[in-house]
Amino acid sequence: MKTDHAPSSVRALTVHAPRAPLSGSIHVPGDKSISHRALMFAALARGTTHITGLLEGEDVLRTADAMRALGADIIRDGVGEWTVKGCGLDGLREPDDVLDMGNSGTAARLLSGILASHGFTSVMTGDASLRGRPMKRVMDPLAATGAVFLSRQGGRLPLAIQGNGDPAPLSYRLPVASAQVKSAVLLAGLNAAGETRVEEPVATRDHTENMLRHFGATVRVEPMGAGGRVITLQGRPELVAQDIVVPGDPSSAAFVLVAGLLVPGSKVVVQGVGLNPLRTGLFTSLREMGADLAISNERVEGGEPVGDITVTAGALHGVDVPATRAPSMIDEYPVLAVAAAHATGQSRFRGLEELRVKESDRLAATVALLEANGVKVDVVGDDMIVHGTGGAIPGGGLVRTRMDHRLAMSAIVMGLAASSPVSVDDTAFIDTSFPGFVALMNSIGAGLAA
Ligand SMILES: O=C(O)C1=C[C@@H](OP(=O)(O)O)[C@@H](O)[C@H](O)C1
Ligand SMILES: C=C(OP(=O)(O)O)C(=O)O
Fold first, then answer.
1. What is the whole-number distance in angstroms between the Cα of residue 329 and the centre of ligand 2?
2. Where's the active site on this chain (predicted)?
């Protein structure tokens, strides 16, 4: 399945510190995790779902294409406004071509749970980044439902899946803290007779559980140990179409907020940001560094807590981020490292092993981003130690973004706060999660070359 949702040409950028503070009040695009799930659950439900605020990034457009190929009728009505006519739980059909999930781990891993639990055969692939990422973490539990997987060596895409339309319900303890693996198991459990049970030793983002309930499934969540959870899903529910309002993505807001903290004199408001407590570890960490982040207008929209965040620039100091916080800020470490580089004193981020299997090896890539720009950084085991420059990041480096949107945006934020310009080899992959990022930053005064 060839689509046009892929960065087609390289977009290099050189970032200079702006002459004036950043200021303004903006919205960031819709939450990526919730947008993928909205399309998938709407396609599995009976009836018509209207989605408002859907992220129209390339990753989510891949999910839309895949659900269409499986039989759902998905229409874009306007900016962020989408209508999905679902097929019902047993109504998906065999896709007649390879499903290309582009750059998106979430799309590939969640979809594998759906494909494994339907009685047809499908093949999934992705771009060079996604083809390098581990799929065994979903293949292993899903194989126990009776599905058969054939992958490249090491459990890499392309992946052929012979699904089982009468899957066995799983009882599975997550060996890695991954909301994607949890969600794949729960999605397969939808078609299984009986109860599917997932134990997670550390709680991960719970958008799947929330949305399952929203569509009418019975889901029980109980605490387990120190910070863990047990999730139980009753199989074969009647999923009924529901309207969905997608909040602004806190992982996207992160870049705007850190830029606002680091560019002297700045004051920026980001409106309508999702504040699900399993996503807000970055805000906790920034506050521990002394950041002035004020939350106002807190409300619940579409079942998720939302608020407006006002950031005021100011000096930061080093922080020690515990490993237990990692799942609630897993995608935010590259930009937190930029904040730590600007801070006074040393920061330590603990337990970052999962960063090695993202769109790039983000541990190595973040180290390279800092070192190329004159910041000292050490890796000790799975911990990263950043030696802060006290507001004087030298800059002047060339950053290789390795098909990784978060690195590209982190490099841009670093350039806005560095003494010499920062060059970024390719910003095109930003479109996977944050289309319009450069224009939005320019609307608050970043002065990036368009
Ligand atoms: O479930 C999700 O929507 C996501 C879970 C996280 O991945 P892992 O489950 O691999 O930690 C995160 O990094 C990704 O951006 C989105
Ligand atoms: C890791 C990420 O996404 P995914 O796993 O969906 O590719 C991310 O957006 O930072």
1. 12
2. 331 (proton acceptor)
Domain assignment of residue 450, yes or no? no
Residues 6+ apart with CB under 8 A from 224: 199, 200, 201, 230
CA dihedral 13, 280, 108, 129 (to 10 degrees): 30
Report the C-alpha gap between 399 and 23 in whole angstroms.
26
Q: How far is the CA of 19 from the centre of ligand 2 (A)?
A: 33
Cα dihedral angle (271, 7, 180, 237), rounded to 10 degrees?
A: 80
Q: Are 298 and 275 in contact (CB under 8 A)?
A: yes
In whole numbers, what is the pLDDT of the chain averaged over residues? Answer: 97
Residue of 247, 175, 177, 176 whose CA lies nearest to 211: 247
* Cβ atoms of 264 and 313 closer than 8 Å: yes
Residue type at position 441? M
Q: How confident is the model at residue 6 (pLDDT cuts 50, 70, 90)?
A: low
Q: How many helices (H) and strands (E) does the chain have?
A: 12, 23
Do 162 and 77 share a structural domain? Answer: yes
Starting from the CA of residue 360, give the closest ligand: 2
> Model confidence at 352, in pLDDT bands (50, 70, 90)?
very high
Whether residue 349 contacts residue 304, with contact meaning beta carbons closer than 8 Å, is answered with: no
Ligand of minimum distance to the alpha carbon of 433:
2
For ligand 1, the distance from its centroid to the CA atom of residue 300, given in whole angstroms, is 23
pLDDT in tens, 364-410: 999 999 999 999 999 999 999 999 999 999 999 999 999 999 999 99
Is there a catalytic annotation at residue 206? no
Q: Residue 25 belongs to a domain with what CATH number? A: 3.65.10.10
Instruction: Supply the range of the domain harboring residue 286.
Output: 13-30+247-443
If asked whether residues 26 and 86 sit together in one domain, one would say no
**Tell me: the pLDDT tens digits for 45-100?**
999 999 999 999 999 999 999 999 999 999 999 999 999 999 999 899 999 999 99
Query: The complex's ipTM?
Result: 0.99
Q: Which ranges constitute the DSSP H helices of 263-378?
A: 281-288, 333-342, 362-372
Tell me, using a 6 A CB cutoff, whether residue 125 lines ligand 1.
no
- In short, whether 205's Cβ falls inside 6 Å of ligand 2 is no
How confident is the model at residue 2, as a pLDDT?
42
Contact 272, 297 (CB under 8 A): no
Please give the number of the atom of ligand 1 that sits closest to the Cα of 251.
Answer: 15
User: Which residue in the block uniquely carries the two structure tokens 């290309």?
Assistant: 100
Q: Are residues 24 and 41 in the same domain?
A: no
Give the end of a domain, one of 175, 200, 232. Answer: 232
pLDDT band for position 190 (50/70/90)? very high
pLDDT at 4: 47
